[in-house]
Design brief:
There is one protein chain. The chain contains 19 helices and no strands. The longest helix is centred in the middle third of the chain and has 38 residues. It is an all-alpha fold and about 425 residues long.
Length: about 425
């Protein structure tokens, strides 16, 4: 009994004292925001036909659908083309901010608003990858995904280093201004009756996050003791760890349901579920490669049965680290093949990002080290290519070791 109590107390302490999976949450932040940003940029020339006023799914049809399913979309606040153009650009900026980890908490909320608004505006434009992004954008709001590999972490490290040297740290001025502007926008939309037009879940979440960010900033600035800060940290850690668990459970559920449905269907038993998509024009960017794969019965059998076995087995392999890592590699390779052969890059990127939440921290640190070294080499190469003017400090300013690297750290206001 004492052993059980000790184990339980250790588990509670671990969940409340720190945000688990900091690197995993950073990877899914970068992965999902990067996928959505690439999609928005690629479809920028076609944005009005897909989600805007020039599309076949008109604003009136969108209004009728959202009135029935109560889906949240800010694009229903106005049917004008100017509002759509402004919102699309703002969605790109919010996604880029989340990708870089700038004001991560605020950026994650704006990222969710952009994803939900565009996808719910034209529900027939999506595929499986859009469904994954739709869910994960909501879960990311509850995570502390900017603690590492972000501009927020870099700013926090600089402030901590300045305090260690006894220097005075300037108070955050941009954060309160951003908070006030977003509060005015929320108040304006609420007073006009548009925010709660189609449901209460997302609007209530927006107001809650806005109030919590204000409370967080007030406690950090005004609290004389550490207890209020510790309490807010505990709540944030519990929400983060719970959201990360839900993300992992969602990924397992996706694979489990997909695998078991495939087992029940005859098309996955005789191979036609793979053969026919390879010969559809819509899913054949490389017809020669598709013909090469489908010409071999052995290849078709390996792909068909291998896909089913990996998807069904993956949730059960989480209890064995080695087997789980092997299946992770196989699933990521499978999605990479889907991206190339079937021409579904954004679906594959979204699923690879969902898989990355299960990657070991050591692997992520290794990949992060490679990325940091590659960035350092690019920075040094750019400095070497620049013309160096003669002067006493020219050699020092172009020194190879002057590239700054981001180190893990705690997040500050708005993250």
């Amino acid at each position: 009994m004492n052993g059980l109590s000790l184990t339980l107390s250790r588990g509670i302490a671990r969940v409340t004292e720190s945000a688990l999976g900091r690197y995993q949450s950073a990877v899914i932040r970068i992965g999902f925001s990067g996928t959505w940003l690439l999609f928005l940029l690629r479809e920028f020339p076609h944005r009005r036909e897909m989600y805007g006023p020039d599309g076949p799914w008109s604003w009136d049809l969108g209004r009728q659908l959202t009135d029935e399913n109560h889906a949240f979309t800010a694009l229903m606040w106005s049917g004008g083309g100017a509002w759509f153009e402004i919102f699309y650009v703002l969605a790109i900026l919010a996604t880029a901010a989340l990708l870089l980890g700038w004001r991560t908490r605020t950026a994650s909320v704006l990222f969710m608003v952009g994803v939900l608004s565009l996808q719910n505006r034209s529900v027939f434009m999506g595929d499986g990858g859009d469904n994954v992004l739709h869910l994960m954008s909501f879960y990311l709001v509850f995570t502390r995904c900017g603690q590492v590999w972000s501009l927020d972490a870099r700013r926090a490290d600089r402030e901590a280093a300045a305090r260690a040297r006894g220097e005075r740290v300037r108070p955050d001025r941009l954060g309160p201004v951003l908070w006030a502007v977003l509060g005015l926008v929320l108040a304006g939309v609420t007073l006009t009756g548009r925010l709660f037009d189609n449901g209460w879940l997302v609007p209530s979440l927006l107001w809650t996050v806005w109030a919590v960010l204000g409370l967080w900033a007030a406690v950090r600035r005004l609290a004389r003791s550490e207890e209020p800060r510790i309490l807010l940290d505990v709540i944030a850690n519990v929400l983060h760890n719970g959201a990360l668990f839900v993300i992992m459970a969602e990924a397992c559920l996706i694979y489990a349901t997909a695998g078991w449905y495939k087992i029940q269907g005859s098309r996955w038993q005789d191979g036609t579920a793979v053969y026919y998509p390879l010969h559809l024009d819509y899913f054949s960017p490389w017809p020669g490669l598709a013909d090469l794969m489908s010409s071999s019965g052995t290849i078709m059998m390996v792909i068909t049965y291998g896909t089913v076995m990996v998807q069904v087995a993956f949730p059960f392999t989480l209890f064995n680290r080695r087997v789980k890592n092997v299946l992770l590699v196989l699933m990521m390779l499978e999605h990479a093949v889907i991206a190339v052969v079937l021409g579904l890059p954004f679906f594959s990127l979204a699923m690879i990002t969902a898989d990355a939440v299960f990657l070991p921290t050591s692997v992520l640190l290794l990949l992060g080290g490679w990325a940091a070294r590659a960035r350092g080499r690019l920075v040094r190469r750019g400095r070497d290519d620049d013309p160096v003017l003669p002067g006493p400090r020219a050699s020092e300013e172009s020194a190879p070791g002057s590239a700054e690297e981001t180190t893990p750290g705690h997040v500050g206001f708005g993250t």
